[in-house]
Amino acid sequence: MERFAQEGLDFPDYPQLIMTKKSRDITLPAAHDNSYQPYLRPVFSQQGACCGQSASVAYNFCYEINRLRNLPSDTSANQYTDHFVWNFMNATTPYYGSGVSYLHTFDILFDAGTPTEDVYGPITMNDDYYWMSGYEGYFQAMHNRISGANSIHAGTPEGLLVLKHWLHNHLDGSAVGGVANYYAGMPYDPPLLPSGTPEAGKHVQIGFQENASHALTIVGYNDSIRYDLNGDGLYTNNIDITGDGITDMKDWEIGGLKYVNSYGETWADSGFCYMLYSTLALKYGEGGIWNNSVHVLYPDTAYQPLLTIKARLKHTKRGRIRLTAGISSDTARFYPEHTLPFSIFNYQGGDFYPGGHKLESDKTIEFGLDITPLLNFIKPGSPSRIFLIVDEKDPDNSADGMLLNYSV
Questions:
Q1: Backbone dihedral region of 285: left (phi > 0), alpha (psi from -120 to 50 degrees) or beta?
Q2: CA-based angle 332:311:47, to the nearest 5?
Q3: Where are the domains of the chain?
Q4: Which residue, among 298, 392, 379, 308, has the nearest Cα to 337 in the 3D structure?
Q5: How confident is the model at residue 347 (pLDDT cuts 50, 70, 90)?
Q6: Topology of 29-299 in CATH?
Q7: Over the stretch 98-112, which tens digit does the pLDDT of each residue have?
């Protein structure tokens, strides 16, 4: 999915959502909280540096797809693992040994999907390198995917209003609102909302650290929470407290968003926390969030894979191979006329066996690939030849492998 440069943004991003007529006619309540919806899974503690995938898949995607399917998110059959997408990018340059941006996760959700935890393994699995083996697991993942993603530039009052409508009514008048992701440098111990104010005693972020090293999920808003940022004994939104000569959203001391973290129930308020609206407007690196933007997902519950590949591959260094599918209308050709790349099995995972461990059995992996887009090149009533192409980059000639079998 393409990200591109946009006016007012420091970094390329997905297309921005704007206010819809249907939402503009809706009067928002002063507070809204989706953490009480059955679609938000229980708070959990992430295993490893997978915050981007915990936020985007285990919280956001899980919530949004279960809302559409009207399923509760309290059972492994309806919960989605963060490690399936994370482990494809983990140990891959430049992410080796550290976190993986959820922007890359969205690409995997778009063309490969993600399996449920009862198929892949629980959210408590602490394994940074495991790749799932078994066609049925990949085939199930193909049914759990997104059709796209959008950004909301939330650093202005107009953008904040769009975000609040997304949280309240999905910008389409829905009875149930949505959730959203963002990146920020998050202090571990946020201060408390003052006594005598709404939600007093609960935690609130009043500014973020310089580097966007953590991903989180916004679940609601509250226009009444407040914090005295400049220590003048007042709670205001109309005084220039930053000293830049402008009174704008950066100066707001009243109002904030509620988000859920992946640090377990012992963090902050049973895993939840507030953040002031002003943090959305502050410049990134100076207390604000990455790109002053949040991201939303659109699960595709109608999609059905119509053409797939089932294959078994043996290799000693998975990060040195790339899989591509292809098709030719001339069955005598040895090269495809059209090719289809994938966001998985794409020079990923480092110099490990495909299974992620050192057992002999980990050298072999069975998987599935959705090649439905190749149907666009098949002429009705005419034969076609389907290709599975394995490219290898092995500069020191130290890897060994073979395609054991594949079928369509």
A1: left
A2: 145
A3: 29-299, 308-407
A4: 379
A5: very high
A6: Cathepsin B; Chain A (3.90.70)
A7: 788 999 999 999 999
